[in-house]
Amino acid sequence: MAFYTALTPPADPSLPLADQLERTVFLKDGFAVFAFVFTGLWLLSKRLWLAFFVFALIWAAIGFGGHILGFDPLALTVVQLLIGCYLGLEGNALIERKLIAKGWSLAGVVEGRDIDTVERRFFESVPGRGAPTASGATVAAAPLQPPPVQGVLGLFPDPARR
Known about the structure:
Blueprint: E1 2-8, H1 17-22, E2 25-28, H2 33-37, H3 39-45, H4 49-69, H5 73-101, E3 105-112, H6 115-125
Antiparallel strand pairs: 1-2, 1-3
Helix pairs in contact: 4-5
């Protein structure tokens, strides 16, 4: 089973709840293979401009500086593979930080076999989706809010005393 982080967009009162929920993003926790293999292109495709700029500077410094200083080409290749490993491990976290900085909110973490299962589990747990009444009309939905924190795992079980 894989874990996915669900991020919801900033609340927009002009849009219905269903349209806001359509924009929910699910990021898989784990190694991003494409970020490892196609590092720079992956950063550009995810619109991580600052991360790409930093990557390009480091890549150029290692490439050109290593040759000027006389480092072994194998050592330079290993360093660049380590950068790829880092982005493979932390790539989805970079996307998450970017979205949170833009005002998106963490709606929860969902476990599932595949993205379809994860989406079904998440949307079944969203409160106030507009349940149909006996007459067939739908009840007005509440604004999109992340579900409340049930408890905290780890050394700090009380979220108020961190």
